[in-house]
C-alpha cells in the first residue's frame, strides 16, 4: 500500500512539473508567447514524453506542454473530438479515423521501442526463453502452467514451477495491445482468427486473464502477482526491474529485448510517405520480434497560428535535443534519415 502511494505521489509530481515547467533560455517568438499545448494518449512513450515536455517547457519562454497518458485509444478519441492540441498513439491512425478529422491529420513517428513479455517467477535462476509456440499458446489460454512442455523444452536445466500462469493484459484501448496482437496474429493463424488485431481484442474468458490499465498498471500487476506474465513497453519493465523473456524471432533465434536488438529490427524498415511504418515480424538474425514506432498526432490546420508554431517548434526540439535522451530512457533514437523525413512533414502543419 505504501509503495502505491509513493508511485501516485511521483506521478502527480511529474504531471505538475510537465504542466508548469517554464523558464527563459530559448523562445519560439512573440507568436508563441503564453501558449499552452494540451495532449493525451499513449502510455508506451509517456516516460520519455514527460521528460521531453518538461525540458522543452523549461527551456522555452511562454510555452507550457501538458500531456495526459490515458492510452492510445483515449488519445485518438480526444484528437477526433478536438479536445486536445495533439495526441499520441502506438497504433498510427487508420484511414477511417483520419476521415473523421475535418482539418486534416499529420502523423509523426517520434521514437520507437520494444514490447516485452515481463514475468514474475522469482525462483528462476536464469532468463526465460519462450518459443513462438509457447508465447502464442500462453496468450491464447492454451498453455496454462509454467511447467508446460512447450516452455520446458526451450529452457533445459531450468526448474520451472508447477504454477498456474496468470496473463496480465491491458484494460484500456491500447496501442501497445495493437502492436502486440499485430505481431502474434502475424505468426499464429489461431490468434489471427481468434482474438485478432486491435487496440482492444476479445481475450480468452478465464479467471487467469487479468486486465489492468495502461503500461504502468500492467507493470504493477505483474510485479504483485507470482506466476504472472504480461506485455509492456521495455522501459517500464526495466525501471520496475522485472525479468523479460527472450523470444524466438523470425530467424529462429532467441533474442533478449535490448536497444541494440530493437535497432536491428528497425534497420530494414522503409518509411512510407504517410509515415505509417509497421513491422509485425521483422527479419534479421538479432532482430527482437516485437518493435514499433510510436506517433504524435497533429492537426494539419490550427485556428490559432501561435499553437501551430509552438507545436512545430516542440517537434523540432524533440527530433534534435530530445533524441539525445531516448536511449537513456529505454527508447530507440530515430535514425537521421527518418528525422529528416519527419522534419520535412512539419511544413504540412499550418
From TrEMBL:
Q: Name one GO biological process term.
A: phosphate ion transmembrane transport
Segments crossing the lipid bilayer: none
Which protein family is it in? Answer: Belongs to the PstS family.
What does this gene product do? Answer: Part of the ABC transporter complex PstSACB involved in phosphate import.
Assembly information from the UniProt record: The complex is composed of two ATP-binding proteins (PstB), two transmembrane proteins (PstC and PstA) and a solute-binding protein (PstS).
Q: Which Gene3D superfamilies does the UniProt record give?
A: Periplasmic binding protein-like II
Q: Which residues form the signal peptide?
A: 1-25
Q: What is this protein called?
A: Phosphate-binding protein
- What positions does the domain PBP occupy? 32-319
Sorted alphabetically, the keyword list is:
Phosphate transport, Signal, Transport
Q: Note one Pfam family from the annotation.
A: PBP_like_2
**Which InterPro entries does the record cross-reference, listed alphabetically?**
ABC_phos-bd_PstS, PBP_domain, Phosphate-bind_PstS
- What species is given as this protein's source? Rubripirellula lacrimiformis
Q: Name one GO molecular function term.
A: phosphate ion binding
Q: Its GO CC terms?
A: ATP-binding cassette (ABC) transporter complex
Amino acid at each position: 500500500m505504501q509503495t502505491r502511494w509513493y508511485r501516485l505521489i511521483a506521478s502527480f509530481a511529474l504531471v505538475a512539473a510537465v504542466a508548469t515547467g517554464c523558464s527563459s533560455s530559448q523562445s519560439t517568438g512573440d507568436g508563441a508567447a503564453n501558449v499552452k499545448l494540451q495532449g493525451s494518449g499513449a502510455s508506451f512513450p509517456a516516460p520519455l514524453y514527460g521528460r521531453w515536455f518538461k525540458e522543452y517547457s523549461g527551456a522555452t519562454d511562454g510555452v507550457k506542454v501538458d500531456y495526459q497518458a490515458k492510452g492510445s485509444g483515449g488519445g485518438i478519441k480526444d484528437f477526433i473530438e478536438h479536445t486536445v492540441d495533439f495526441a499520441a498513439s502506438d497504433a498510427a491512425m487508420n484511414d477511417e479515423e483520419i476521415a473523421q478529422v475535418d482539418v486534416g491529420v499529420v502523423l509523426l513517428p517520434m521514437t520507437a521501442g520494444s514490447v516485452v513479455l515481463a514475468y514474475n517467477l522469482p525462483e528462476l535462476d536464469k532468463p526465460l526463453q519462450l518459443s513462438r509456440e509457447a508465447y502464442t499458446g500462453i496468450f491464447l489460454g492454451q498453455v496454462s502452467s509454467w511447467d508446460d512442455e512447450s516452455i520446458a523444452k526451450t529452457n533445459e536445466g531450468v526448474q520451472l514451477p508447477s504454477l498456474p500462469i496468470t496473463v496480465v493484459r491491458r484494460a484500456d484501448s491500447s496501442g501497445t495491445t495493437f502492436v502486440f496482437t499485430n505481431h502474434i496474429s502475424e505468426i499464429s493463424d489461431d490468434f489471427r482468427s481468434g482474438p485478432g488485431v486491435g487496440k482492444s481484442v476479445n481475450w480468452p474468458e478465464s479467471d487467469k486473464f487479468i486486465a489492468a490499465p495502461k503500461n504502468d498498471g500492467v507493470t504493477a500487476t505483474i510485479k504483485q502477482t507470482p506466476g504472472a506474465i504480461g506485455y509492456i513497453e521495455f522501459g517500464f519493465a526495466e525501471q520496475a526491474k522485472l525479468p523479460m523473456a527472450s523470444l524466438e524471432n523470425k530467424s529462429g533465434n532467441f533474442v533478449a529485448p535490448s536497444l541494440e536488438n530493437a535497432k536491428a529490427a528497425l534497420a530494414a524498415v522503409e518509411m512510407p510517405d504517410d509515415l505509417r511504418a509497421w513491422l509485425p515480424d521483422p527479419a534479421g538474425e538479432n532482430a527482437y520480434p516485437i518493435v514499433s514506432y510510436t506517433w504524435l498526432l497533429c492537426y494539419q490546420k490550427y485556428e490559432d497560428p501561435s499553437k501551430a508554431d509552438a507545436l512545430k517548434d516542440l517537434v523540432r526540439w524533440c527530433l534534435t535535443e530530445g533524441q539525445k535522451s531516448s536511449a537513456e530512457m529505454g527508447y530507440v533514437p530515430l535514425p537521421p534519415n527518418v528525422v529528416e523525413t519527419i522534419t520535412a512533414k512539419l511544413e504540412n502543419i499550418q
